[in-house]
Structure formats: structure tokens, C-alpha cells
Amino acid sequence: MTTKTLRAGLIGLGMMGRHHARNLRALDGVDLVAVADAQGDPHGAAPGLDVLPDVDALIAAGIDYAIVAVPTQFHRDVALALASAGIHTLVEKPLAFDIGEAEEITAAYETAGLVGAVGYIERYNPALQAMRKRIAEGQLGEIYQIVTRRQGAFPARIRDVGVVKDLATHDLDLTAWVAKSQFSSVAATSTRRSGRQDEDMVSITGQLEDGTITNHLVNWLSPFKERVTVVTGEKGALIGDTLSADLTFHANGETATNLWESMASFRGVSEGDSITYALQRKEPLVTEHEAFRDAVLGDASNIVTMREGLHTVRTVEAVLESAETEQSVALGGSVRA
């Protein structure tokens, strides 16, 4: 239980903003005292509160921290205004529209000593939280490969970006987070099949700085929904399904080695036992809000930092460059804290 009641503000009352409002209203130790959106409150997310016109009015309401859920093109201006006012801030993913803006935002919060975070809700899925904990405890041993599949129908609310910035950004972030290693290179192929200007399908092959190889299949042209992360290591594989919040472990089995001489040195595996873990299926957005509240109060152990968000923006840009040039793209040096 928290000991101080924090005054929270929210800017952006669209599709995602309404869910932030619902969670802020129910969050222990927090009062949602101000909301802002130039378009009003179309979903009735903030009954009883005046809808302020802009970020300046939100700041004037006297808030301790803010949630930014405006369109990505406005992230820079809103986040910098909040930083200048000394307000801790969580910005919905992606951190910014391009790497230059992401660097500017990150520097502003780090220089001011403020808590800055990015809203990558998939990290807070119970299956992925449990997966990362088990990997850190050594259940898989050395990690060899991470594969993600994120497929589904086109969301009509998306108008300004393609599938890489809208969906693949989740997989790039969670992959680096699960492995505790950032991307060193990516190679991508994308296509446009829906008649929109931006890409609607992408296939990404990558490598992390620790040598892990990755593959990400993302599209919004599938007649079914799939959200799967598979991590394979020396002791077996973990499969996380973030739709059902299930986590399954497949252990490597014992296998006889009395093979012919040419195969004697091959270290293969066979099917072993598998187990699906019982998890507490808590809404990921609830966990995300609890983590950011705790960060404002001094425990920043479970937030997506802006520096991590900066690297994800850099990886996204590398993916788009690779798809455009049909060449593998190497990323720069480490940017993680």
C-alpha cells in the first residue's frame, strides 16, 4: 500500500486514453485530478472532470505525474512541456515518431532527474513477466533464439503509421527485454497489400548483442489473432501466449547417442516433458500503472525506461530502412542505462 496520494493527470482521451482513465481512477494511492484533450471526451472516460484544452492547462492543475496518450506525432511537444514543468511522465508507445525526437525526450527527462517511461503494455502480460523471471533464474540456460508472431485484422483506428510502428515495436521491445540484450542488426522484408500507403506485413530477422538470433512475423491482414513468443535455449523452450496469458515449458528430453560415427558429435535434443504454468491473470494495464506509480515513489524496477524506448525507436527505424533498401542494417552502440 502506498503512503502518499499522488495527483495524476492524463492527456489524450481516445481509444487508449479511456483505458488509462479507468485504471487511474481505480489505482491505490492515486487521484486522477485532471484530463486534457483538444477533441473533448468522446468515450465519456472522465465523468466529473473538466476536459482541459492542452498540456499547459494540465500542468497548471498541479499534478505529480502524467500519462501521455495523444497521437505519436504530438509526443515530443507534450513530453518536453511536462519535463520542463518537472512532472514525471509515462508516454504511450512508441516514445516518439523518429529517433531525433526520442533522443530529445530522453535527454530532457534524464537531465531533469525525472521518472520517464514508455507504455509497452505487452511487457506486463502475466505470461511474459513469468517468462522473463524464469529465464533470469536459468530455467533455459543459454538463450539461442527468440521468435514472435503477432497477426490479426487491421485496426480501423490506425491512420498514421504502418504495422512496424504500430505492432512490431511491441515485439522488438519485449525481445530485447526478455533477453536483457539489445539488437545489433536487423534484416526486414515488408509489403503493402491493403491499399494503404504504409506497410501492412513485415518479416524481420535479427541478432542481439549477446548472439541470440530472432525472428518476428507481424501483420494485420490475418483472419485470426495470434500473439506468441517462443524462447529456445540449451535446456528447452518457453512459449508465451499473450492472448490467453498462458506460459508453457518444453524440456529437452534424454536421447540415446549410439549413432553412426558421422553423427556422434551432433548435440541434438528430443521431446521431453512439458508443463503449462498456472498464472495470476491480472490485466497488464493495471500492472503497468502500478509499476509507474511505484517508480514515482522511488521503485523504478519494473518500468520501460525512456532509454529503452529510445533503443526500440532506433530498432524500428533500422527495420524500415532494411525493408526499403533490401539490406541488413547494423545498429549503433549501446543506449541502455
TrEMBL record:
Residues 129-238 form the GFO/IDH/MocA-like oxidoreductase domain. The keyword Nucleus does not apply. Residues 7-120 form the Gfo/Idh/MocA-like oxidoreductase N-terminal domain. InterPro entries: Gfo/Idh/MocA-like_OxRdtase_N (IPR000683), Gfo/Idh/MocA_Oxidoreductases (IPR051450), GFO_IDH_MocA-like_dom (IPR055170), NAD(P)-bd_dom_sf (IPR036291). It comes from the Bacteria. The keyword NAD applies. It holds the Pfam family GFO_IDH_MocA_C3. SUPFAM superfamilies: Glyceraldehyde-3-phosphate dehydrogenase-like, C-terminal domain, NAD(P)-binding Rossmann-fold domains. One of its GO terms (molecular function) is nucleotide binding. Coiled coil: none annotated. Keywords: NAD. This is Gfo/Idh/MocA family oxidoreductase. It comes from Brachybacterium paraconglomeratum.
